[in-house]
Write a structure and sequence with these properties.
Blueprint (H helix, E strand, L loop, with lengths): L1 H23 L1 H6 L8 E5 L7 H4 L7 E5 L8 H13 L4 E7 L3 H8 L6 H7 L8 H16 L1 H8 L4 E7 L6 E3 L1
Parallel strand pairs: 1-2, 1-3, 3-4
Antiparallel strand pairs: 4-5
Helix pairs in contact: 5-6, 7-8
The structure holds zinc ion (ZN).
Length: about 180
Amino acid sequence: MSENSSIDQLIQDLQTSNKRYASENQGTLEKFVNGQKPKIAVLTCSDSRVIPEFIFGKSIGDLFVVRVAGNVPMDTTVLSSLEYAVGHLKVDLLIILGHTNCGAVCAAEKSTDEYNELLSEIRQSFTLDNNHFLSNVIRQLDMLPKRSNVISKAINEGKLHLVGAIYHLEDGIVKFL
Ligand SMILES: [Zn+2]
């Protein structure tokens, strides 16, 4: 009973905030109803502290964002989402944005579970740099074009720039590699 009422409270809070958002953004919402043309795609972590639109001061229609734990483009759903941004929306820039104190990277450091695909993937980057938040981004920059023909083709044709960056939770600064 008390659990239900706390969930009700959470949903009520979301609805209140959502109504405010809808009224404050009516003009922009209408502008983008029929399509989007973002120039930038961002692959970043699902971490609640890493919010690309906030970090880069962007808004509706500005960024095509894919978020997955550890910002690892590995499975077909993540790759297909990024391919949509590159092949269909024709973004100019794709950023793989890692971050300090990433829980997925820390879990990969602690775990020896070779059957966890995500953690194994992150662990494979550890030889690339002593800073594993960085090494993970370096590996994914290398692996993404190898895993996607659409993306490697766009890069080779000069239509897409793929860059890596690290968001620093401590001070909010993004350092591009
Ligand atoms: Zn993370």
